[in-house]
User: What shape does this take?
Amino acid sequence: MIKTVDLHCDTIVKAHRVKEPLRDNDLHVSLNKLRQGGALAQCFAMYIAKRFETEPSLTGDPMMDRYEVILSHFKKEMAENRDMIRQALTVEDITENDKNGLISAILTMEEGAIVGNDLGKLDRFHADGVRIFGFTWNYENTLGYPNSLDPEIMNKGLKPLGIEAVEYLNKLGIAIDVSHLNDGGFYDVAKYSKKPFFATHSNARSLCARTRNLTDDQLRILGETGSVTGLNFCDVFMRLKSPDEPRILPIGDIVWHAKYIVDKAGEDALAFGSDFDGIDNELEFKDASGMQQVVQALSRHFTSSQLEKICYKNALRVLREVQNV
Ligand SMILES: [Zn+2]
Assistant: This one.
């Protein structure tokens, strides 16, 4: 069995919302399912929706209020399940946890709106163990613009604060995530970042013409900069479908994108970014417990050295190059 690193799931927010325990539940990701699927490390995204901006707040910062709620839920789950999973702050922590038979949890963020005009908040996020930071979700914010069908929005660069954020995140040792960002923002991250970066959950746009996916030119740049994209298991980011087609993702579609991305970006640029519990389709391999079925299918098309890179080495390499310890 080759263990896997998954760069993105929405499980911690969903588990909090539906009041399901992390250890055992009906979601895509539970600790038991991660163990069964051979997880080395799971990234848990704190998605702090922009709509919280307008919620009433005693502190005057409703997005930070929401952050505190999700963070404390995550920390509580980590404390209650220390026999199965530990938060990792460094790649060395991941190795150490694995030696002790433990899965690693990596805390990440999605939607940069939370920083507002204060990049100082990034210090707080780093102190809490956030190691990957996504600039946008699907709305404009103070850092930049989201992926869009409107070419004018799609091609705008990062805002000045976004460019400053790139430099500040590099300095702090937090990896930048360009998934959801627009094309202009992608190119600015590639231009200004001194460290490799992630598209934590994006596929190939040539195979599936969605603005959330990466163009061939962007894939080439990932390869050139040592950056990595994580395969997203959302069926509509894999293949354009007619509305009456069943919403089940076949493993073959994952293999199809994997081969294409390795061909365009190289074998050092691919990882997994499942989007578990953020996607509403079914999966041929059911959930996180079936990850080894995906690994098995990929093993028929890649050498064992390539497969190890896709499963965990590429993700860990970028984390190691970015981390500041
Ligand atoms: Zn997402």
In short: The chain has a mean pLDDT of 98.
